């Protein structure tokens, strides 16, 4: 069974997709932009602060689904400048502990709304 997850504690979808989808024992969370849900705007122009907001948004969606960020099994981090990788990685590391989730990180030409960072996740529910 497929269940859509939505929460006002994270930014709403900016297109035809869901914040997250529950399937079996997994939660698939769409890429989160650095949008502060209380303002609807980016929290900062700084990539590190943007990554922090992306992770806060992921955590809020996980909570709405009845799980937590610590149960993340896979993430994908998209950056518009890999030069920001070390500092973004420092913030990222503060949200996870061993065993760390599997991860891919890519530099991309552009992200929606001019973001510098976007992060998606697969999180265990059980």
Topology:
Elements (H helix, E strand, L loop, with lengths): L1 E4 L14 E4 L2 E7 L2 E2 L4 E2 L4 H18 L7 E8 L5 H9 L8 E6 L9 E8 L2
Parallel strand pairs: 6-7
Antiparallel strand pairs: 1-2, 2-3, 3-8, 4-5, 6-8
Summary?
The protein has 126 residues and is of the alpha+beta class. The chain has helices at residues 47-64, 85-93; strands at 2-5, 20-23, 26-32, 35-36, 41-42, 72-79, 102-107, 117-124. The chain is 21% helix and 33% strand.
Defining key terms:
six-stranded mixed β-sheet, 8 strands, 126 residues, 21% helix
Q: β content, as a range?
A: 25-35%
Note the total helix count: 2
Biggest sheet details:
6 strands, mixed
Broad structural category: alpha+beta
SSE run: EEEEEHEHEE
Strand tally is 8
How would you describe the overall organization of this protein?
This protein is 21% helix and 33% strand. The protein has helices at residues 47-64, 85-93, and strands at residues 2-5, 20-23, 26-32, 35-36, 41-42, 72-79, 102-107, 117-124. A 6-stranded mixed beta sheet has the order 1-2-3-8-6-7, with helices on one face. Strands 4-5 form a two-stranded antiparallel ribbon. α1 packs parallel to α2.
């Amino acid at each position: 069974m497929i269940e859509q997850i939505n929460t006002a504690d994270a930014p709403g979808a900016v297109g035809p997709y869901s914040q997250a989808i529950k399937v079996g024992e997994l939660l698939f969370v769409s890429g989160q932009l650095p949008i502060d849900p209380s303002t609807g705007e980016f929290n900062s122009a700084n990539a590190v602060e943007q990554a922090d907001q992306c992770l806060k948004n992921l955590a809020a969606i996980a909570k709405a689904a009845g799980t937590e960020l610590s149960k993340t099994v896979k993430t994908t981090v998209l950056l518009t400048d890999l030069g920001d990788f070390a500092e973004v990685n420092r913030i990222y590391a503060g949200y996870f502990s061993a065993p760390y989730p599997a991860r891919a990180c890519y530099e991309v030409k552009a992200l929606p709304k001019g973001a510098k960072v976007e992060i998606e996740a697969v999180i265990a529910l059980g």
